[in-house]
C-alpha cells in the first residue's frame, strides 16, 4: 500500500482563539515495502501526520491516499482501512486494559475480523504473541499488568499486528527502553517487515535508530516536510538538521570532527559502514 500526501493541512481547534495549525501543506510519498522513518522536534506535525494515515484524525485539507483508500472520500471504508493500517502509539503498554493477555490481544480481532470463529481468533492471537517472541502458554492467562515493561510493550504490539496489517505505524516504538531493549524492538520490527506487513513507518527522536534501520526518511519542521531522502543523504546535511534544532547520529558527529581534521569519510552513517570506511581511510593515510 503506497502512501501519498499532497498539500495536507490540519488545524486543531479551528475557528477558535486556540486554533493551532499543525500541518501546513505536507507533501510526502512512502512506497510499499519501505522501512520509513519520520524525524522532527516536538510540535513539528509528525504525530498529527501519523494519525491521519488510518483516519484517527479525519482529513480536512489536502489529498491523502493509502493504497486504494482515498481518505477524502466520504464513502471510504475506514474500518477496513484501520484493519490494514495498524497504529502503535508511544508507550503503548499504558493502553493495555483487559483481564488477560489473550483477551487484550484479541480485542482488535473482535473489532476488525468479526467473521472469524473463536478457534480462529485464538490461533491468530497465539501467532501474534509468538511473533513478538513471547511464550503464549506462559502468559496468555496472566494479567498484562503482571508483566515486565518490555513484555507489556510486546503484548501491546501483538494487539496491533494480530490483524496482520499491511502497514504498521509506530510513534517512538523504542522510547524509554535501554539499548538492548531498543535493539530487540527494532529487530522485531524487521522480522515483521516484508511478510504480511509490507511497510513500516515510525517516528523517532533517535537519529542512530533512523540511520541504522531506515530505507528512507522525512524531516518535519513547522508542519511541513523539509527533507525526504535516504538517511545517508539526509545526514550529509547535518548543518541543516542542527539549524532545525535536531540531533544527528554519532557517526555523523564523528564524520564532522574528522572532516575538521582533513579526513572526509563517504559513509551511509550506519555504524558498520562508518567503522569500515574510517579504518580504510586511516590505512590509506598510514600507507601514504
Give structural notes.
By secondary structure, this protein is α/β, with parallel strands linked by helices. The chain contains twelve helices and ten strands. Strand 9 and strand 10 form a beta hairpin. The N and C termini lie far apart (51 Å). The mean pLDDT is 92.
Instruction: Give the low-confidence spans.
Output: none
Tell me the helix content: 40-55%
Output the structural class. alpha/beta
Strand adjacency order, main sheet: 6-7-8-3-9-10
Order of helices and strands: EEEHEEHEHHHHEHEHEEHHHH
The biggest sheet amounts to: 6 strands, mixed
The coarse overall form would be globular
In whole angstroms, how far apart are the ends? 51 Å
Overall radius of gyration: 21 Å
The number of E-state strands comes to: 10
For this entry, give a set of tags.
12 helices, 6-stranded mixed beta sheet, 41% helix, 288 residues, 10 strands, alpha/beta
What is this structure's SSE topology?
Blueprint: E1 3-12, E2 20-30, E3 35-39, H1 46-52, E4 61-66, E5 69-70, H2 78-84, E6 85-88, H3 101-112, H4 118-131, H5 136-139, H6 149-161, E7 167-171, H7 179-192, E8 199-203, H8 207-213, E9 216-221, E10 224-229, H9 231-236, H10 238-243, H11 250-260, H12 271-287
Parallel strand pairs: 3-8, 3-9, 6-7, 7-8
Antiparallel strand pairs: 1-2, 1-4, 4-5, 9-10
TL;DR?
The protein contains 12 helices and 10 strands. The chain is of the alpha/beta class.
